[in-house]
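Apologies for my clumsy wording, but can you show me some protein sequence, whichever is easiest, together with the matching structure tokens, please?
=====
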Amino acid sequence: MTTGWSLFVIFLVALNIAGCAWLLWWTSKRRGDEARNNAETTGHVWDGDLTEYNKPLPRWWIILFWLTIVFSIGYLAWYPGMGNFAGTSGWTSAKEHDADKSEADARLADAFGRFDAMPIDDIARHDDALAFGARLFQNHCAQCHGSDARGAKGFPNLTDGDWLWGGSPDQILASIVQGRQAAMPPLAAAIGGDVGVTEVATYVQSLAGIKADPALAEAGKAKFAGVCAACHGVDGKGNAILGAPNLTDDTWLYGGDFATISEGIRNGRNGMMPAHGPIIGDTRSRLVGAYVWSISHRDADEPPDAP
């Protein structure tokens, strides 16, 4: 706050306190028999003899108001409230926040500390750790992957065995801590425009075992080998290092219909998972990773619990 604004705030506070004090003095100066005998009226009369008077406030009420003013002056001297004046106590909301955060961090460290640096597949053997991980997942991951972790269009299903970046404990942890950036560039111009997109999309469907036009698929095969194989491999089985998906199974992140595949080839895709290491720290990332690893290693017919 600039000096000018600080002085303006101090002036307003002082003016309000002085105004309240003057108002109390003015309303309490007429007392005793004279005040009672010569009290002013408001001019309101009911039923002929019921008159509304304008009398001073009761003394006990005025004393309470004076005590309030004294308290406000003491409060403003002790706590910051007068512009840039910091108060004699040295209290700040930032210090209060830091103290509360330190206390909360100490409690969390006591609860999570035993899992520090532990591999996530080992953490997954502890029921209490999985409970912690499930709640952290709901707070930080369910917005994209769903409360049941089955994902949605553009957001991977975490309960199956299909992984873009690898499903080992270390790979899952790396995805959580560091985040992932998956980018597929628009390829229409590189493979011959709309005709090339149609041919390659048909070939991709044939790789997944979807019935497709043999002639178009054969034409798309050469274009796929020249452009798409750099990421997805010549056999279309993908590359976990690049996050390039396996195109030969029936798992699709955006959809396996012809229109969706064509759209991805023509316009590209840009999927991003933010790094959660800076947000929740290493140990809590491990707890989330343990939960994700555990639900992906259940029986395929057993749905994960949504806490």
Notes: Residues 20 and 128 are 59 Å apart (CA to CA). The first strand starts at residue 40 and ends at 46. Confidence is low (pLDDT under 50) at residues 300-307.
